[in-house]
Amino acid sequence: MSAGAPSNVSQKNLIDKVAQYVSKNGSQFEQMMKEKQRGNPEYSFLFQNGAFNKYYLSKVRSEQIAQKVICCSSCLGVYFLYVLIICNQSRVLAQINL
């Protein structure tokens, strides 16, 4: 099982897109995807022992963080540039006042 991004661009794009949808639509959407795609090797990343599962989970988390940051910033009327850097499962959130 790989923790890094897939080298195949179409596989990476698929994982990134599913992670975006899961972060927006929640765990019920993810469960529906798992049920529909069970046995489909292209979607093995959805499952704990699947290839690129760690990468997928990190993308879901980073999308969720980004959505919360955007929501909080807009609710407060404060404008910040947030940079989310993910490196080897470490997450750093940098805040830069504009």
What does this structure look like?
By secondary structure, this protein is an alpha+beta fold. The protein has one domain: Arc Repressor Mutant, subunit A (Orthogonal Bundle), CATH 1.10.10.790. It has helices spanning 9-25, 27-37, 53-76, and strands at 80-87, 90-97. Strands 1-2 form a two-stranded antiparallel ribbon. Strand 1 and strand 2 form a beta hairpin. It is globular and about 35 Å long. The N and C termini lie far apart (40 Å). 11% of the residues are buried.
Q: What can be said about this structure in brief?
A:
This protein is α+β, with helices and mostly antiparallel strands and 98 residues long. It is built from three helices and two strands, in the order H-H-H-E-E.
Topology:
Layout: H1 9-25, H2 27-37, H3 53-76, E1 80-87, E2 90-97
Helix pairs in contact: 1-2, 1-3
**What is the overall pLDDT average?**
78
Count of runs of 4 or more consecutive helical residues: 3
As a percent range, the share of strand residues is 15-25%
Distance between the termini: 40 Å
Secondary structure: number of strands: 2
The CATH superfamily turns out to be Surp module
Q: Judging from the principal axes of the Cα atoms, what is the shape?
A: globular
In the residues, how many domains can be counted? Answer: 1
SSE class: alpha+beta
Helix content: 40-55%
Q: Major sheet, described briefly?
A: 2 strands, antiparallel
CATH class: Mainly Alpha
| CATH topology name | Arc Repressor Mutant, subunit A
> What is the level-2 CATH architecture name?
Orthogonal Bundle
Radius of gyration from the alpha-carbon trace, in angstroms:
15 Å
pLDDT under 50 segments (min length 5)?
78-98
